[in-house]
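Write out structure tokens for Tetraprenyl-beta-curcumene synthase.
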Amino acid sequence: MISFIRSLKYSNKYKNYIYPIVEKRGKENWGYTKRIRKLSIKSNAREALEKNRFDSAVSSICMLYPNVDIPMAADVITSFQAILQYLNTICMHSSTSTEPFLRLIFSSLKDALNLRNDSYEQYFTFFPSKDDSGYLTILVEKCRQKIRTLPSYDVIRDQLSAFLALFIDLQITKFSSDDNAKEVNLTNWSSAHGQKYPELSGWEFCMAVDSTLSIQLLLALATDPDLTEQKAESFNISFFPWICCIHKILEGYINYNDDLSSGNINYDFYYENLKEYENRIIFLMKKALRMKASNPKLVRSTVKLLLSIYITHPKANEGMNAITSKALLKAGGRGMFFYSTAVNLLRAKKYF
């Protein structure tokens, strides 16, 4: 009964509070893309925006924690997510992802989160076209405006800065490496940074860092005027690295065939088979639930919801994936039926 009530509450919150903001910001950003003169960059920007609806569904798991102002959280996270997806799309399609270019373009995330006081950079200085007609700067400024409204931003600022620095460092390593050196460079990077989590493989540590769910959770929590550092940490300890890692495994799971044909990196390639990453998801779920979170029942609901968003995706039921998806549905435990049904209904109505 508890799962039914929580899944129903999630569905109502998503329809009434999160989705309208996602749609509004998406339309605004689409309008801003009209100023981009370079057609290839305009295409990248619009491709990124088309992915944001599903990204927002995933991000929604961060907005359901106690005392979170959902409209405010949806606004700031959607603004941040738009930049993330744009940068990722640019880098995925670029053949000139040099370290100077990556370091400069990803510095926009620091500016967006108001972690630097200096003026905006010319983010595309090292890109062949030299600029994107100011589109990224617009996204950054819009996000900065939302960040300034967060009543407890100072509480999460240091944690946010630490996670973001690690994330940017991984992006530079990932996108600046050529195909022959990428695997070695990422392995070395994870060895240097992931010693604190011996229960994770090097690739799994990369996955956890590559997910920004911890950052998004902190932004959501910062909408609570009474947030304390202890409270933020008690929730985030389950997210990083455990729930973040589950997120990226599931993302790789539904994108496996697409990434295989396009040559994009997919961390799931380093698992031997479907059964192995099914087992690792179950292990990570247990780890997340064992953390000393202030609300373990809410953590359990968060994991169930994240699983439901991915295993109800059409790609999760193609070929052999259907078997794994059924196993993950079962592994999620009691109440998964209600969460997956709620997500399916939202998807059927084109909310994501």
